[in-house]
Amino acid sequence: MSVPGSMPNMVSGFCTEWLFLPVMLRNKTIKIFLNYFLGPLLFVGLSVSIFQQIRQQPHLAKSWAEIKESFASVKAFYLGLAVALIFVNWGFESWKWKLLVGSVKPVKFFTAYKAVLSGVSFSVALPNRVGEYIGRMVYQPQGGRLKTISLAVVGGLAQLLTTMIFGVIGLIVLKKELLQAYPQLVIWFQFVLYGLLFVLTCAAFFYYNVGAVVSFFSRWLSSHHYLYLVEALKNFNAAFLSKILFLSSLRYGVFMLQYIILFHFFGVNVSVSSIMSVMSVVFLALAVIPSIALLEVGLRGEVSLKLMGLFSANSLGIGLTSVTVWTLNLVIPAIAGTLFLLNVKLLSKNGED
Fold first, then answer.
1. Cα–Cα distance for residue pair 9/343, rounded to 1 Å
2. Where would you find the membrane-spanning parts of this chain (predicted)?
């Protein structure tokens, strides 16, 4: 699952695409290789990798048995609703991407949707979602692909801000339970909380002043050769950025709703308010801890068990929920993204398929 707040590593992503993409764009042989060999190879490789990850998940046999048994009851409706929310989740992300990339070149919603899912497929085996840049860039025309890096960073920052805001609220709400369970962490709790508030304040200031920051540095830099990569950010005003942040909040809400539904489906009888508080802290932890997407499910399950275990002894249900949400929001979109990549000209001139 794409964590609602995880943002690709800005520096490593920028350097990678900047160093290698201009070379690839000038090489017809590499164009043929990417268009007709890499797509199918990526599909096969990702499919095998995804299959191996699913097979190695803890409690997998019990998970399938539990799901099959639940289909015989009215709870099957909840699973179906959680599956349907996959499209809503990535729909909000695609809408956000459509608005962002529209500042460079207008795109259709379905094109944005395919670009987002293609980014998921690339990011499965790369750390910190770096691959999301590549997947989204292949749907842009030549000359405009590198410009989308800064747009992706802004979109990721909006999601990170959302995760941090609700995560801090969750930490405050759970303070009593956390310190009762882990009294040795009293000092660390205060340190982490105030540290997060400081980072959140700085991130919010940068986010809502990104245009001014770009304009300021453009005046002082001796060379403006690379400023075209961020020139679109100069036109981002508070109203536009608030809209992006609102869409990020809606997507966050979809993630939360999926967890509420699936905890009920797997028999974890915890109040909605407790689930929201716990999962907001889980999302926050996953957003700040570097990881590879395919390894995320283990970390997600461990953190969820520690925190949700404060309210429920149903460890199996908690673990099954974590695995199922991860599968729904990462595995299925990644497979769909590879299918889209089979039909796209990765280095086409117009960026549209």
1. 28
2. 32-51, 72-92, 112-130, 151-174, 186-210, 244-266, 272-295, 316-342
231: helix, strand or coil: helix
Distance CA 233, CA 239 (A): 13
Token couple for 345: 């000209």
Sequence letter at residue 121: S
Which residue reads 């095998």 in tokens? 48
Taking only Cα atoms into account, the Rg of the chain, rounded to an integer number of angstroms, comes to 21
Alpha helices in 146-185 (DSSP H): 147-173, 175-181
In which residue are the tokens 């796209």 written? 344
Residue 200 exposed, middle or buried by CB count within 10 Å (0-12, 13-18, 19+): middle
pTM: 0.77
Residue 208 class from Cβ within 10 Å (0-12 exposed, 13-18 middle, 19+ buried)?
Answer: middle
Contact, 188 vs 269, CB < 8 A? no
Whats the size of the chain, residue-wise?
Answer: 353
| Nearest Cα residue to 119 out of 109, 131, 108 | 131
Q: What is the pLDDT of residues 126-152, one digit of tens each?
A: 655 666 777 787 777 766 677 778 888
CA distance linking residue 328 with residue 334, whole number of Å: 10
Q: How far is CA 334 from the centre of its chain?
A: 12
Maximum CA extent, the chain: 69
Sign of CA dihedral 115, 11, 9, 123: positive
Question: What's the half-sphere exposure (Cβ side, CA atoms, 13 Å) at 36?
Answer: 6
pLDDT digits (tens, 9 = 90+) for 46-65: 455 545 544 654 555 665 57
CA distance 101 to 103: 5
Q: Which positions ≥6 away from 192 have C-beta within 8 Å? A: 171
Q: Which token pair is 83?
A: 């599956």
